[in-house]
Design goal:
The chain is mainly alpha-helical. The protein has one domain: Jann2411-like fold, CATH 1.10.3300.10. About 50% of the residues lie in helices and about 10% in strands. The chain has 8 helices and 7 strands. A 3-stranded antiparallel sheet has the order 1-5-4, with no helix packed on it. Strands 2-3 form a two-stranded antiparallel sheet. β4 and β5 form a beta hairpin. The radius of gyration is 19 Å and the shape is globular. It starts with 9 loop residues before the first strand and ends with a helix.
Length: about 210
């Protein structure tokens, strides 16, 4: 059984779209090869630190724990990637107006059942966050903010704003917070302009 990494309580802030950002750590999914940000557990920890999803002292404690247990670290990393891919498939399906696969929802529900209970809120400089009694060196605790955000997004009206980039080589997920809700591209400066240039080129070839 995994022991707690930090003796005291840990504060875990949550953004509703954090799960989408985590799913996007693998991108240009329509190309070969795809671009992968996470090549080991240190990358997963670094991503959480950069997103401020897990406090810096907790990230350092988790890293020290897993550095001494590389075999356990490999297993946690494999689970973290499997959950990321389940999240991508879930939100990709909803973005296309489809029902996510039951196996992916089950994977999310099982992981959620193992996360620390959200029973106490705490006010921080950045707003409100969840305070958990302890943080264990297991994937459900490390990914707790990501998993909570996935559940919150799936049960929120913002779910209808989840989109997948219309560039079939990109397939990046995003939450469309534009006023009219008709955004098609992850970024107009990248995929949007590429699509415009492609259409212009195609028209010039036809004329």
């Amino acid at each position: 059984m995994a022991h707690s990494v930090l003796a005291g309580p840990t504060v875990l802030p949550v953004r509703t779209d954090l799960c989408v950002d985590y799913a996007n750590t693998r991108y240009w999914r329509g190309t070969a090869p795809v671009t992968e940000e996470l090549r080991g557990l240190p990358d997963v920890l670094a991503w959480h630190a950069a997103q401020k999803a897990v406090p810096a002292d907790a990230v350092a404690a988790l890293k020290a724990w897993w550095d001494e247990r590389p075999r356990q670290a490999d297993g946690v990393f494999a689970e973290a990637l499997a959950l990321r891919e389940a999240l991508y498939r879930i939100f990709s399906a909803t973005a296309l107006g489809a029902t996510p696969a039951a196996v992916d929802l089950e994977a999310l529900n099982q992981a959620l059942a193992r996360t620390p209970p959200r029973t106490q809120l705490r006010h921080t400089d950045a707003g409100y966050a969840w305070q958990v009694a302890k943080l264990r060196p297991v994937v459900s605790d490390l990914l707790a903010p990501v998993l909570w955000s996935a559940a919150d997004l799936l049960t929120n009206t913002r779910l209808a704003r989840v989109r997948r980039c219309a560039n079939d080589k990109c397939l990046y997920l995003f939450v469309d917070d534009s006023r009219n809700g008709t955004r098609r591209w992850c970024s107009m400066s990248m995929c949007g302009n590429r699509a415009k240039a492609h259409r212009h080129y195609a028209k010039s070839k036809q004329s």
